[in-house]
Specification:
49% helix, binds magnesium ion, alpha/beta, 8-stranded parallel β-sheet, binds phosphoenolpyruvate
């Protein structure tokens, strides 16, 4: 057992150094999803080229009260230092729904997944939101950081987020505090409305990251946490694939970088489809990166495109792969 563990470790180590390129020479960027700064090291070890999704709400969920600006900053500083110049995509707090705070659970919503969650919650709790934005900006002076808003559904939400960020930038400037003025600001595409309107969002978003965990649940009307309907939760559903294709096309047309950071990006079979639908950047849990890279190095983009074309044309979600 020890032996197999060791040889596995060696092969993962060696794999980590090999380029993530398809047989036709197309580079596929593999990034990691993290929930705490320490995981940056794990991502690196598994061959990730950076962090595509840092779920910052765990900072909140672990302490049961809103983190102070300093607590945010310490976490981001730690993460950016461990990143050593590689990209670190910080998602602003995605609270609510499956990630309820103490305060939210004292005042439960009837339909939390359709309720005051994520960017909506942040836009109604501005002091909390601004403290986070300040901390992210301060950390951006220490290394490359991208900022990403979750659950954006209306253009006004993206605009408000960017407006607030600008506000905070002005404050920092007045105070003489350093930050990256050119920080990239992108959005998650995880509701069908955003996927359908990708071409509109593309004019205002610095990048897209498709969140299939939520996109699947909202497209198929299946609660991602409800075991009773788990059999209906299927990322391979042609409706989901069509939405992803639409986002990919808009991103190409408007030259907006696009990635997928839902857990299914770490599923090799689904990754094939994503590549076939035009994506060149995938972000997943560190442990899923080595098998993902192994797959990438075995296929051509053309093969992926053929599989994706077949899958998207099916009249149901069965027998896709
Ligand atoms: C997603 O919805 O796909 C996603 C990456 O975000 P989370 O799983 O944190 O909701
Ligand atoms: Mg999500």
């Amino acid at each position: 057992y020890l032996e197999t563990r060791e040889s596995l470790a060696v092969s993962i180590n060696e794999l980590a150094k090999l380029p993530s390129v398809t047989t036709d020479g197309t580079a596929i960027t593999l990034l990691g999803n993290i929930e705490s700064p320490e995981e940056v090291a794990q991502v690196r070890l598994c061959g990730g080229e950076g962090v595509g999704l840092y779920r910052t709400e765990f900072l909140y969920l672990m302490s049961e009260k809103a983190p102070t600006e300093e607590e945010h900053f310490e976490a981001y500083k730690h993460a950016v230092e461990l990143s050593k110049g590689r990209v670190l995509t910080i998602r602003t707090m995605d609270l609510g729904a499956d990630k309820y705070t103490q305060e939210q659970s004292e005042n439960p919503e009837r339909n939390p997944f359709l309720g005051l969650r994520s960017i909506r919650y942040c836009l109604q709790n501005l002091p909390m939101f601004k403290a986070q934005l300040r901390a992210i900006l301060r950390a951006s002076a220490l290394g490359p950081i991208k900022i990403m808003f979750p659950l954006v559904t209306n253009t006004s939400e993206l605009r408000q987020g960017k407006y607030l960020l600008n506000d905070v930038m002005e404050d920092l400037e007045d105070e003489g505090i350093a930050f990256d003025r050119k920080i990239e600001v992108g959005m998650m595409v995880e509701v069908p409305a955003a996927a359908l309107m990708a071409a509109t969002f593309a004019r205002e978003a610095g990048f897209f990251s498709i969140g299939t965990n939520d996109l699947v649940q909202y497209t198929l009307a299946v609660d991602r946490t409800n075991e009773r309907v788990a059999n209906l939760y299927n990322p391979f559903h042609p409706a989901v694939l069509q939405l992803i294709r639409n986002v990919g096309r808009a991103a190409r047309r408007y030259n907006v970088p696009v990635s997928c950071c839902g857990e299914s990006a770490g599923d090799p079979e689904f990754a094939l489809l994503l590549i076939g639908l035009g994506l060149r950047t995938l972000s997943a849990t560190a442990s899923s990166l080595p098998p993902l890279k192994r797959l990438v190095r075995k296929v051509s983009v053309q093969q992926c495109e053929r599989i994706a074309q077949k899958a998207i044309a099916l009249d149901s979600d069965v027998a896709v792969a």
